[in-house]
Automatic annotation (TrEMBL):
SUPFAM superfamilies named among the record's database cross-references: B-box zinc-binding domain, Concanavalin A-like lectins/glucanases, RING/U-box
Taxonomy of the source species: Eukaryota, Metazoa, Chordata, Craniata, Vertebrata
UniProt-recorded name of the protein: TRI27 protein
Compositionally skewed regions (Gly residues) per UniProt: 337-347
Residues covered by the RING-type domain: 13-54
Keywords assigned: Coiled coil, Metal-binding, Zinc, Zinc-finger
Length: 484
């Protein structure tokens, strides 16, 4: 029995007993048709077992066998026998040159055509490069092999690159998981530390309360005993005063005089010192917790990009085409009565040189709204302000700066203010901010302003009332060089 007789058995799928179709290898190394093994593994119960060796794997693994597929193609050709190719060669030779009925022995490289000896000597091909067919075939095969090797090298590089990328992706996933665990651990540790600190402070406070109760009891007991003694003495002396003169005068003189009375020392000042010391120790802790809360208010909101809405801008404001900035137009000439277009809602009519009084009820404010509206959640945005002129920024409850309500802060005539529709509160920041962060917590009704560079709180409105209406960013600029 020759090798060709054994080939069909070796190149056949153990399941369907036919030549492999789309061969794949599994975990144990055996090969099967993809469709055959998928049918076998369609309803696994206790893992994925090899139909041939019964080796079981917990997970399904199918790896394409491209090399085996190529070998099978060669096997199919071989199984048809060498006579077929010989017949094909004879058929090609019998075809020969259709014009001269001669064998095609040479190849013209310029025209890319097979030629017979007569065509070779014709005027059309005499000046061309003509080579014997085997030599050309060998040359082209070498070129194809070179190109094939290049493709294989490129494929291998891509495979290596893919493996490297997968390793890096897994490393990134491991890094993010490690970061997640680190954050959870830190916050868990912080929570436990705060709980422990709270328990310790409450325990100290409980001890202080016990001391106060104990001192109060002892003090009241001591004072009660002293009062009882004095009552007894008073009663004794009163009885002696009611005795006859002869008996009364026989009392020694020293017993007639009582010792000077002195109030006992009170323990309350000492308790007051303990309470004051306890409160003093907690001041630093309270300031630390307050700073931590400010950082949370600064970091927790989702940062959003605000685009200015030119349709809400005062006529004397210049809004950038992309809506990223607004500045004061010192060259603006307000129209006279009946001349030109009249300012719309929110347009100002203040005479030049008058400082505006920011407030949503004042339609003269040189202000502009942002396009974005907030109706829920936490949001924040950073605003860069110029040191010249006056400016204000914050949020306005729609319908806008004319008729709505405002929560803002800004610089007016060199003084910082917190501004609402009802009041102006003077502020005294440590330094003039260059970037201001507006932090809005819609659900809690909180509007806070931070120095974005220093990450420090400037002012916060703790209890704004939005009444379920949308809130939009609000900006005001006034004076030469004023810009946001």
């Amino acid at each position: 029995r020759g090798p060709m007789d054994a080939l069909p058995g070796e190149a056949s799928c153990p399941i369907c007993r036919e030549y492999f179709r789309d061969p794949v290898s599994i975990h144990c190394g055996h090969h099967f048709c993809r469709s055959c093994i998928e049918r076998c593994w369609e309803w696994p119960t206790t893992g994925f077992a090899c139909p041939r060796c019964r080796d079981t794997a917990p997970e399904r693994s199918l790896r394409p066998s491209r090399e085996l597929a190529r070998v099978l193609e060669i096997a199919r050709r071989l199984s048809r026998g060498e006579a077929l190719r010989a017949g094909e060669k004879e058929e090609e030779e019998e075809e020969g040159c259709q014009r001269h009925r001669e064998p095609l022995e040479v190849f013209c490289k310029e025209d890319g055509a097979l030629l017979c000896a007569i065509c070779r000597e014709s005027r059309a091909h005499r000046a061309h490069t003509v080579l014997p067919v085997p030599e050309v075939v060998r040359e082209y095969q070498e070129q194809i092999q070179a190109g094939l090797q290049t493709l294989k090298d490129d494929r291998d590089k891509l495979l290596e690159f893919r493996e490297a990328e997968m390793r890096r992706n897994w490393e990134f996933l491991e890094s993010t998981e490690a970061e997640r665990q680190r954050i959870l651990s830190r916050f868990q540790g912080l929570r436990l530390s705060l709980e422990e600190l709270s328990r310790r402070l409450l325990a100290r406070l409980g001890d202080l309360e016990s001391d106060i109760a104990k001192v109060q009891e002892e003090n009241v007991t001591s004072l009660t005993e002293e009062i009882s003694r004095l009552d007894s003495r008073v009663q004794e002396l009163e009885e002696k005063c009611r005795q006859p003169a002869r008996t009364f005068l026989q009392v020694p003189r020293r017993s007639r005089r009582e010792e000077n009375f002195r109030l006992p020392l009170s323990p309350l000042p000492e308790l007051e010192k303990k309470i004051h010391h306890f409160r003093k120790e907690n001041v630093l802790l309270e300031e630390t917790l307050r700073s931590f809360q400010d950082i949370l208010v600064f970091e927790l909101p989702e940062k959003m990009t605000v685009t200015l809405d030119p349709s809400t801008a005062h006529p004397q404001l210049l809004v950038a085409p992309d809506g990223s900035s607004v500045s004061w137009d010192s060259a603006w000439d307000p129209p006279g009565d009946g001349d030109g277009p009249q300012p719309g809602p929110g347009a100002g009519t203040d005479p030049p040189g008058d400082e505006p009084q920011p407030g949503p009820g004042a339609g003269t404010d040189p202000s502009v709204l942002g396009r974005e509206a907030v109706t829920a959640g936490r949001r924040c945005w950073d605003v860069q302000v110029a040191p010249e002129g006056s400016w204000a920024l914050g949020v306005a409850r729609t319908p806008g700066s004319a008729g709505g309500e405002l929560w803002s802060m800004g610089l007016c005539q060199g003084q910082f203010w917190a501004l609402t529709s009802l009041e102006r509160i003077p502020l005294f920041p440590v330094r003039a901010p260059r970037r201001v962060r507006v932090a809005l917590d819609y659900d809690r009704g909180q509007v806070a302003f931070f120095d974005a560079d220093e990450r420090s709180l400037i002012f916060a409105f703790p209890a704004a009332s939005f009444e379920g209406q949308s809130v939009r960013p609000w900006f005001l600029v006034w004076g030469e060089g004023s810009r946001i």
